[in-house]
Amino acid sequence: MVGGGFGNIFKIPELKKRILFTLGLLIVYRVGVHVPTPGIDGTALATFFEGKEGTLLGLFDMFSGGALERLSVFALGIMPYISASIILQLLTVTIPHLERLSKEGEQGRKKITQYTRYGTILLSIIQGFGISIGLESMSSPGGAPVVIHPGWEFRIMTVMTLTAGTAFIMWLGEQITERGIGNGISLIIFAGIIVRMPIAIGNTFRLLSTGEMGIFPVIILLVLMIMVVGFIIYMEQGQRRIPVQYAKRVVGRKMYGGQSTHLPLKVNTSGVIPPIFASSIIMFPATIASFITIPWMQSLASAVRPGNIVYESLYVGFIFFFCYFYTAVTFNPADVADNMKKQGGYIPGIRPGKRTADHIDRVLTRITLGGAIYVSAVCVLPSVLITKFNVPFYFGGTALLIVVGVAIDTIQQIESHMLTRHYEGFLKKKRA
């Protein structure tokens, strides 16, 4: 049973230690979010950030768990690391040296991880300097400057502080992955998003108490939320399994192979990368417009705000593009077919080699279409709920995909730890 399964978690000393270690580092991260960067007027900055939900600043603030809005030492969050990782993945298919490293097993992955760290520091320095320059030009609607003493001293201090903060978050994430449970970087993003839930719940109760929302619409909304989460879980675990047969081989006096297996192709191979990229590109004009008071820039920014038909159309179009683009970059059917052929495997009814690669590519193209439609629907959902049904909080989109995806991955890792130690997982039913 589920209850008994959860009780078994604390019967495994190593698993208990890993979970407590993970929770401890996540608490350290949340404490750091509230440590301010020197030289900032916090009140003026908070006033400036009001109404920035539809800009890149709002997107980055979501991923940093509110650290950017406070300009804490963790203001850059883990975004530089994510950006560096994506850049390295894209470069892997174009630079032969990186491609060779990716195929060298554990040593190659360690080298690529080291390059990712260097890239993270470089991007943090660049972004930190850009933020310091931008902060000096910011002021609250009342005219109060955000930076108390602008100049090179402030810029250098801000760059050092924000870069050190991102490096520390990166270290926390790696420690959680190595000594805790789950993927550390993903859990840090998860923690930053999930802490906003109490605010959303509080806003809903406030509207209920004032009569601005009725109990019946809230019940319908709750049912819809449960259905959407269930749909995301179903789609994230969805696979198209291509049957693979391995020929029998005789080595010495023993016979190997002959077994049947399958090649699992995920419906959503690209994960949350497409909506992140799509949001970043579309929100760029709105972000620039918040600093520049030029009429045509203001008009362009208004046209590409969430809820506008132009924004939603571009958003869906970019999501489709990046779903196919990122899948093509990270999954090579020719390599899969070649490895399968070397190991004596083949798809029944399909000739090994190019025919197999073409078949895998055809199947992948079809299921990626379904994945793109699913991601688009979830990402457009918040705008529909807010504009059409006056929902008082942001539900859906990239944040929900990340939260559900990370939760599934973490639960599966806990389940794996329990099953390897002969405990029944908490997702299994109790046997009679």
Structure characteristics:
single chain, 432 residues, mainly alpha, Preprotein translocase SecY subunit, three-stranded antiparallel beta sheet, two-stranded antiparallel ribbon, 18 helices, 68% helix, globular
CATH superfamily of the largest domain: SecY subunit domain
What's the Cα radius of gyration?
Answer: 24 Å
Q: Helicity, in percent?
A: 55-70%
What is the count of structural domains? 2
Largest sheet, in brief, is: 3 strands, antiparallel
- What's the CATH class of the largest domain, please? Mainly Alpha
Q: Which CATH-level-2 architecture of the largest domain?
A: Orthogonal Bundle
Shape: globular
Average of the residue pLDDT scores: 80
Number of strands: 5
| Pattern of helices and strands | HHHHHHHHHHHHEEEEHHHHEHH
Structural class: mainly alpha
**Unreliable residue runs:** none
CATH topology type of the largest domain: Preprotein translocase SecY subunit
Helix count, per DSSP? 18
Adjacency order of strands in the biggest sheet: 4-1-5
Query: How much β-strand is present in the residues?
Result: 5-15%
